[in-house]
Each structure stands twice: as C-alpha cells, then as structure tokens.
C-alpha cells in the first residue's frame, strides 16, 4: 500500500466520521429539544430540594445537641421561626395588585406576627428563668 | 434593595436561625441564641419589605398586620402562666398552619408576583407544592386546635374512638390525594378550597383519638408539621429562607416526637392510632371493683417531715399532677428547708413528665430550682439506690416497676425512674386511682412506701410547716 492511497483512505474515513457526527448532532437536537424547558424548570426545584435536604441534616444535628431541659424553649423558638412564612405573606401583599391576594396576605401576616412576637417573647421568659437561677 | 441583596439577607437570616437553635445546647448560651433568632426574623422581614417592586399600599397593609398580630402575641406571651405553656404552644402552631393556608391562597390568586405562572395557568410543579403546603397547613391548624382544646380542658382529654375510625381516616387521606391530583390537572380554585377543607377534617380526626397524656407527642408532632408546611410554601414561592427554616423546624419537631415516643416505649404509629389509656383504664377499673382493697401504708405530712428531716439524700420526682396543683413553688420551699437541714436534694425528671417536652424543667426553673439540681432520667437513675427518700409528687406511671417486670402490662418496656430502690418512697396522690396508662402501681403496697393522700400543694405546704417547727 503506497502512502497516497493510505492518505486518501484516511481522508475518506475522516469525512465519514464528520458526516456521522453531524447526523448524531442533528438527531440529538431534535430529540432533546422538548427536554430542555423541563430541565430548566426542574433546576430551581432541584436546587431548593438540595438546600432543603441539607437544612434537614443541619437541623437534625443541631437539635440533638439541645439539652433536654430546654426542650420547651426549643419549641418556642421553632414556633417563632416557622412564622418566617410571613415573608410569603409580605410578598403576596406588596407585589402585584390582586386585592384577594392582598387580603389573604394581610391575614397571613397578622397570624404570623402573633406567632413571631409571642414565640420569641415566651421563649425569652422561659430562658430568663433558667438563667436567673445560677446561684440557687 | 436589589434582588440579590434580598437573597443575601435571607441567607444571613437562615444562619442566624441555625445559631438560635444551636444556642439552646446550654442555658448560658440560650438567651443569646434567642436574640439571634429575633435579629434573623427582623432581617428577613425588613429585607422583604425593601425588595424592589414593593407597593406602598402593600407595605402599609403588612405593617398593620404586624402591629395587630404583634400586639396580640406580646400580650399572650407576657400574660401566660407557665403551667399553660403547652396550650399556648398548641395555639401558636395552629396559627402557623392557618397562615400557611392563607399565604398559599394569596399565591394562588396572585401567582405573577412569585413568578410561578399566571392566574388560572400556574405551573404544574408549583401547584403540587402549593397543594402540599395547603394540606399540611390545614392539618396543622385543625389538629392544633383540637390539641389546644384538650390541653385547655375545653374538651375531654379522653381519647375519642369509634368503629371504623382508621378506615375513615384512610378514606379521607385517599380523597385528599385524589383532590391534589385533580387540582394539579385543572388548577381550579374550588379544588384549592376543597383540599383545604378535607385537610382540616383530617387534622381534626387524626387528633381526637389521642389521649391527654400523649399530648407531648402530639404537640411535638404538630411542631414538626408546622415546619413542613412552611417548607412546602417555601417550595411554592421558590423562597430559600422558607425552605431552610421549614426544614429546621420540621427536623426539630420530628426529633422531639421521637424522644417522647422513646420515653413511653411506644412507636409513633401506636401513639397516632390513638385510643391508648381508654381500654386499659376501663379494664383496670373492672379489676379493681372485683377485688378487696389491698392494704397500703398511709402517713401524715408530719410523718413525712420527720423522716425527711433525718434523711441524707432526697430525690424529688415531679409529674404532671404537681403542675396541675401548682405545687412547684412550695415544693422548692420544701427543698430549701431540707437543704438547710443538711440533706442533699435533687430532682428527677422523666422525659414525658408534663404535657410538652421539657415542661417540668420550665416549671421548676420558674420556681427558682437551680438548674444543677434537676436531672434527666439516665443521669439520676443510678442514684436512687443511695437515696434515703424518693418524694414522688403527681407522678405515677413513670415510677411503676411493672414496666420492667410485667410483660403483659400496657407500659412494659417504658423507661422508668427507679424510685423503688430508695429506702423510703413517698407518694403524694389524691387517691388510689391508677395513672394514665390504667396500670396499678405495685409500689403503693410495698412496706417502704408511704402514701400521702391529698392535694399536692396542700400536702407539701403542711410538710413545709412541719419542717419549720
């Protein structure tokens, strides 16, 4: 086999490969096209899910470290911070102009506020009792 | 404030919330922790109000809500008696649940604000998350209302059971799933409210069969639910802070439920299916009436005072009965007097004493009992053998040795405080009735046990008077 033949053969193979690659790319584009928007929509969800699961682990380890004597204040604090749902109520009330949404936002914000103030204050009262008795 | 700044503020708030929980690992750091929590909440609220695009009218409405709600919350929190703490917490849980329902409703009618679609055409994924948020929120609300009513004695603490109860609940659960699927498919407002109503009914039915003394589990479980509801809303609104906080609270409540169940050696399903104490109590009563009363040794407060004055080591075991009688203050006085007499006084707390996790610790702390004198079960159990006196006030099942020996007993396997090992055991009780589990306590009939019949507070007061002489 002389060098020219070999070169021609190699070139032909390279051209075939190029054509196949172009075909594969075209196929990929046509089949994957409908998947793209779904993937885009799933992305924020997956990110939130990741954060959610990691936060579950953080919560798990932090709460096991809470001394049993302070389990009641723990409930008070978790109660107060779960009312961070007020953020949703504020957004619903302040963005957009649906009056139904504003109405529900107001109700949500009011209820959450009861909890935020009540939860933190009652916890403070409880903790003050624990702190004040060092000397016995 | 730019969008990214808001997100950054949420991140800081999340970290502060984690630090708030972290602080509770010791009383000395706990108050700073609570402060972190407040600052975190403040940052979250202010950052949201300053977000770009917030309308002035909306800000005014929110501030009005904050003032009204904050006023009510402050009033409740400063007025509440520590004995009624479980009721307050149950009431607060119900509010979180209801707030979750309202926020989901607001998002449903104004989806553009959250970028989850348009009214009537909300993204499918968001509808799933929204319906989960609503359903968990509504269950939390009605379940907590029932828990509140039971704790506040607005309704009987006895389990309410009827035939086919579990099948009914299962049916409603399936109906709920069907409604959620239909809601996601159609995005109809009617279905949104139907989900809320059916979930309300489910929350109600799930809690009524659970007895009063199982309330520590229920309250912790509802605590957990309120967290999951917040997380569900967080997913709907794609809000990082809500998701993180919801997960923290959910995990916390779940752990507390687990600890409470372990304290009773019962599975969470056993508690949730309910009816505990109802049948067992009936059986015990039937037994008791058929048999002649066994002799017990009962004594006067003066006898108790005499014995304790000469004791070297005294362990006090408070239970829910002490809280009901409001005897914690006078109990601490008794402890102080005994310490003056040279006795070593400590307190033993069972994990499920009281009506919510840690309730007894708070009551004793309120009565100025030093933190160092209060011990958990594992810590103090070895010490009963060296104790001269075990002073059981308003507790019963948690001291019952049948939990160790009698395999047929309803409380078999439950960890108990080993008061039987003390030289003398005092039981302050109103009468001979068995405890919540309906199991007779063998200890009452032992030679080294002395029963002090009467109201916990009065009896303790009489002991204090006798000690002062």
Automatic annotation (TrEMBL), chain A:
Catalytic activity: NAD(+) + NADPH + H(+)(in) = NADH + NADP(+) + H(+)(out)
Domain NAD(P) transhydrogenase alpha subunit C-terminal residue range list: 49-131
Catalytic class of the enzyme: translocase
Transmembrane segments: 45-64, 76-93, 99-123
Pfam families: PNTB_4TM (PF12769)
Originating organism: Teichococcus aerophilus
Domain of life: Bacteria
Chain's role: The transhydrogenation between NADH and NADP is coupled to respiration and ATP hydrolysis and functions as a proton pump across the membrane.
Bilayer disposition of the protein: Multi-pass membrane protein
Official protein name in the record: proton-translocating NAD(P)(+) transhydrogenase
Compartments where located: Cell inner membrane
Enzyme nomenclature, EC number: 7.1.1.1
Keywords assigned: Cell inner membrane, Cell membrane, Membrane, NAD, NADP, Translocase, Transmembrane, Transmembrane helix
UniProtKB/TrEMBL annotation, chain B:
SUPFAM superfamilies the UniProt entry points to: DHS-like NAD/FAD-binding domain
Domain NADP transhydrogenase beta-like: 7-465
Leader sequence segment: none
Record membrane topology: Multi-pass membrane protein
Catalysis: reaction(s): NAD(+) + NADPH + H(+)(in) = NADH + NADP(+) + H(+)(out)
Keyword match NAD: yes
Residue intervals passing through the bilayer: 6-24, 33-50, 56-76, 88-110, 130-155, 167-185, 191-210, 241-261
Entries under Pfam families matching the protein: PNTB
Gene3D superfamilies in UniProt: TPP-binding domain
Alphabetized UniProt keyword annotations: Cell inner membrane, Cell membrane, Membrane, NAD, NADP, Translocase, Transmembrane, Transmembrane helix
Top-rank taxon: Bacteria
Annotated EC: 7.1.1.1
First-listed, main subcellular location of the protein, grouped into a coarse class: membrane
UniProt key word Signal: no
Location within or outside the cell: Cell inner membrane
The protein's role, per its UniProt record: The transhydrogenation between NADH and NADP is coupled to respiration and ATP hydrolysis and functions as a proton pump across the membrane.
Record family assignment: Belongs to the PNT beta subunit family.
Protein name: NAD(P) transhydrogenase subunit beta
Native source species: Teichococcus aerophilus
């Amino acid at each position: 086999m002389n060098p020219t033949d070999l070169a021609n053969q190699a070139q032909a193979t390279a051209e075939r490969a190029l054509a196949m690659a172009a075909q594969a790319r075209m196929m990929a584009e046509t089949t994957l096209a409908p998947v793209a928007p779904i993937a885009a929509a799933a992305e924020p969800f997956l990110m939130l899910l990741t954060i959610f699961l990691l936060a579950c682990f953080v919560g798990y380890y932090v709460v096991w470290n809470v001394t049993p004597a302070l389990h009641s204040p723990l409930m008070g604090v978790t109660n107060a911070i779960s009312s961070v749902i007020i953020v949703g109520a504020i957004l619903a009330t302040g963005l957009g102009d649906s009056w139904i949404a504003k109405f529900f936002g107001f109700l949500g914000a009011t209820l959450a506020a009861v909890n935020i103030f009540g939860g933190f204050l009652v916890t403070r009262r409880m903790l003050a009792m624990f702190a004040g008795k060092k000397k016995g | 404030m730019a969008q990214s700044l808001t997100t950054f503020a949420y991140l800081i708030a999340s970290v502060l919330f984690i630090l708030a929980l972290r602080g509770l690992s010791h009383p000395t750091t706990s108050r700073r922790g609570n402060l972190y929590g407040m600052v975190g909440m403040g940052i979250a609220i202010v950052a949201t109000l300053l977000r770009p695009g917030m309308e002035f009218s909306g800000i005014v409405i929110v501030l009005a809500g904050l003032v009204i709600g904050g006023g009510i919350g402050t009033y409740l929190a400063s007025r509440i008696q520590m004995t009624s703490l479980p009721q307050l917490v149950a009431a607060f849980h119900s509010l979180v649940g209801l707030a979750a329902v309202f926020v989901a409703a607001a998002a449903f009618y104004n989806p553009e604000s959250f970028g989850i679609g348009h009214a009537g055409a909300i993204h499918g994924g968001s509808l799933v998350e929204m319906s989960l948020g609503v359903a968990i929120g509504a269950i939390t609300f009605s379940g907590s209302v029932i828990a509140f009513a039971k704790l506040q004695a607005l309704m009987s603490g006895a389990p309410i059971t009827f035939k086919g109860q579990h099948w009914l609940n299962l049916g409603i659960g399936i109906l709920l799933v069907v409604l959620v699927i239909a809601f996601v498919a159609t995005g109809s407002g009617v279905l949104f409210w139907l989900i809320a109503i059916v979930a309300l009914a489910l929350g109600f039915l799930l809690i009524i069969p659970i007895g009063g003394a199982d309330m520590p589990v229920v309250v912790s479980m509802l605590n957990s639910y309120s967290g999951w509801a917040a997380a569900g809303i967080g997913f709907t609104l794609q809000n990082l802070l809500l998701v993180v906080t919801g997960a923290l609270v959910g995990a916390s409540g779940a752990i507390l439920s687990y600890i409470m169940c372990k304290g009773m050696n019962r599975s969470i399903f056993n508690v949730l299916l309910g009816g505990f104490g109802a049948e067992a109590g009936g059986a015990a009563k039937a037994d008791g009436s058929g048999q002649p009363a066994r002799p017990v040794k009962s004594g006067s407060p003066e006898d108790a005072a005499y014995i304790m004055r000469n004791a070297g080591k005294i362990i006090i075991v408070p239970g829910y009965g002490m809280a009901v009688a409001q005897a914690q203050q006078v109990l601490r006085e008794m402890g102080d007097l005994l310490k003056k007499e040279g006795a070593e006084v400590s307190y033993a707390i069972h994990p499920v004493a009281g009506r919510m996790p840690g309730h007894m610790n708070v009551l004793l702390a309120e009565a100025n009992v030093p933190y160092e004198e209060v011990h958990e079960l594992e810590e103090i159990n070895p010490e009963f053998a060296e104790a001269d006196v075990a002073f059981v006030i308003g507790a019963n099942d948690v001291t019952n040795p049948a939990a160790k020996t009698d395999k047929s007993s309803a409380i078999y396997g439950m960890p108990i405080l080993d008061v039987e090992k003390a030289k003398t055991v005092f039981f302050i009780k109103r009468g001979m009735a068995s405890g919540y589990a309906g199991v007779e306590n063998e200890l009452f009939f032992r030679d080294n046990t002395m029963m002090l019949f009467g109201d916990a507070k009065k009896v303790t007061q009489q002991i204090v008077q006798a000690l002062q002489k």
